[in-house]
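Propose amino acids for all 448 sites.
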């Protein structure tokens, strides 16, 4: 599609690669020529933190505000009780009101890093909760006033529902109502706050179109929908996942260093694209950095990691993460910012006599890896395999043993070759460094 936008926001969306589809490019572009328009994205409270997969939507709200408009972050206190079935194989677990409230409290922490609220300016952001209008709906009134505008035939034709039914996977009546409630959100936001735009991932297209159609039928107002692509990395993996699980945005669920390291490990082919989507560097500079090859692209990856981390956790956290990485990777040291796992004696096995633990390893081999106390005494031990599990560097005992067998495991930068190695508690009085491959590291130590 060739379209030359007039508004700053649409220009940014197109130039930086945020735009997948729009219900009316020209109509929305014209509407956004007037400053102070409002747009929203909804976030259901299914966990205590959002992960990197949601960051593209957060950046869209940030750019919306930077181009002179009012972003609305809508917490799904009501819709979370139903659960979005879009492109899922099974029903989401039902959460209690207390769990939802707790999750919302955790999610809210992230937005303040990207969006300005309560500034008094025309483009000051708003944070709302759809429980405000969904919790007290009268069922019969809702069916008569809202439900009559929805065609079941049309709802069944949406890909998010159709794909579930085509696989002969159950879709509950509860889930089927989700798209009606999300459509009602758009109606209420338009009625209460004059919201003219809903944004979301391309998997939300059907829900967004429903909201536009409902609002036009009930209020006869012109509103719009815009979606971003569902991102995968160049090797086909879903954005937001890593070898160790989700890349959470809250620092209490993922340290700034681990967040930084995720971006530093970006594949070469994704660097330019991610710089445009997740940083505010000029597009020309993003393209220049993304075109680097060989060892030069590593400098671009550091810039990517620094810029993304600085937006979320602050510039000081980004600089500390880079310093830790240099200490760990270039000097072989132990960085202060590495993720640390603190163990208690409950994690250890009590053994009567230390010499009996030698097993297949000689004392010389054992001392190569650990600073242990010797002597015929009662001690507490933990296996090296367990350490890699507890540190998150391995997903299972089998995974840890494979890592060791393939020479990918190190303790204090020394190769670990015996999966049966036992380490005593005294060796963990100060932190020891575990490494899985060249890029994943953690510290472990005994509490106290």
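Proposal:
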């Amino acid at each position: 599609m060739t379209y030359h936008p007039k508004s700053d926001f649409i220009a940014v969306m197109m130039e930086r690669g945020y735009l997948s589809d729009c219900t009316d490019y020209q109509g929305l572009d014209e509407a956004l020529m007037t400053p102070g328009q409002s747009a929203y994205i909804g976030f259901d409270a299914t966990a205590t933190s959002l992960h990197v997969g949601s960051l593209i939507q957060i950046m869209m709200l940030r750019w919306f505000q930077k181009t002179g408009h009012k972003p609305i972050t809508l917490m799904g206190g009501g819709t979370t009780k139903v659960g979005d079935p879009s492109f899922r194989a099974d029903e989401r677990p039902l959460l209690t009101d207390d769990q939802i409230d707790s999750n919302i409290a955790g999610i809210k922490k992230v937005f303040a890093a990207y969006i300005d609220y309560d500034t008094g300016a025309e483009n000051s952001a708003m944070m709302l909760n759809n429980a405000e209008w969904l919790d007290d709906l009268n069922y019969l009134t809702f069916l008569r006033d809202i439900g009559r505008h929805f065609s079941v035939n049309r709802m069944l034709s949406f890909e998010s529902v159709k794909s579930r039914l085509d696989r002969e996977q159950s879709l509950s009546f509860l889930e089927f109502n989700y798209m009606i409630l999300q459509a009602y959100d758009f109606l209420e936001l338009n009625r209460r706050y004059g919201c003219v735009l809903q944004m979301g991932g391309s998997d939300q297209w059907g829900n967004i179109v429903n909201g536009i159609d409902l609002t036009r039928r009930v209020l006869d107002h012109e509103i719009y929908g815009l979606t971003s692509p569902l991102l995968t990395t160049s090797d086909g993996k879903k954005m937001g996942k890593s070898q160790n699980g989700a890349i959470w945005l809250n620092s209490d669920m993922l340290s700034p260093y681990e967040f930084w390291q995720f971006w530093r490990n970006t594949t070469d082919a994704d660097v330019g694209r991610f710089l445009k989507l997740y940083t505010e560097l000029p597009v020309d500079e993003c393209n220049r950095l993304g075109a680097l090859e060989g060892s030069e692209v590593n400098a671009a990856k550091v810039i990517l990691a620094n810029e993304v981390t600085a937006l979320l956790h602050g510039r000081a956290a980004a600089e500390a993460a880079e310093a830790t990485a240099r200490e760990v990777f270039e000097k072989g040291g132990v960085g202060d910012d590495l993720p640390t796992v603190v163990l208690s004696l409950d994690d250890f096995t009590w053994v009567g006599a230390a010499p009996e633990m030698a097993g297949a390893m000689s004392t010389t081999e054992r001392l190569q890896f650990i600073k242990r106390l010797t002597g015929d005494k009662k001690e507490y031990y933990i296996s090296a395999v367990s350490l890699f599990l507890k540190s998150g560097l391995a997903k299972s005992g089998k995974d840890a043993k494979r890592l060791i067998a393939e020479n990918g495991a190190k303790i204090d930068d020394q190769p670990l070759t015996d999966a049966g190695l036992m380490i005593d508690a005294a060796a963990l009085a100060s932190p020891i460094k575990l490494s899985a491959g060249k890029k994943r590291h953690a510290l472990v130590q005994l509490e106290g």
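The first helix runs from residue 8 to 16. Residues 101 and 108 are 11 Å apart (CA to CA).
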